Amino acid sequence: MKKKRFTEEQIIGILREQEAGAKAADLARKYAVSETTLYNWKAKFGGMDVSEAKRLKALEEENARLKKLLADQMLDAAALRELLAKKW
Question: How much is the pLDDT for 1?
Fold first, then answer.
């Protein structure tokens, strides 16, 4: 089954519907997601505006990129230490 991807705007719109009084089960059926997904979205995006959600996504992407750079640097440093530890 193909995974459906929702944008931050769509997720916040769905959460606003839930805040307006729509039941989670009805929304889950309407948008073809599980109720658990709705509750996870609410935990992550609840009370946010669209701009805040976009900023959160950008920060998460930047954090992932920086973690990858750090891991690469740590591997390089470990390789250099290993080379320097060898006796010629």
Answer: 54
Per residue in 8-24, pLDDT tens?
Answer: 889 999 999 999 999 99
Both structure tokens of 29? 């059926």
Q: How many CB atoms lie within 10 A of CB 14?
A: 22
Phi (first) and psi of residue 2, to 5 degrees: -75, 135
The rounded radius of gyration (Å) of the Cα atoms in the chain is: 21
Only one residue has tokens 């920086």, namely 66
What amino acid occupies position 4? K
Q: How many whole angstroms separate alpha carbon 38 and alpha carbon 14?
A: 8
Asked whether 24 and 35 are in contact (CB, 8 A), the reply is yes
In the block, which residue shows the tokens 């599980």?
A: 34
- 10 Å CB burial of residue 15 (0-12, 13-18, 19+) is buried
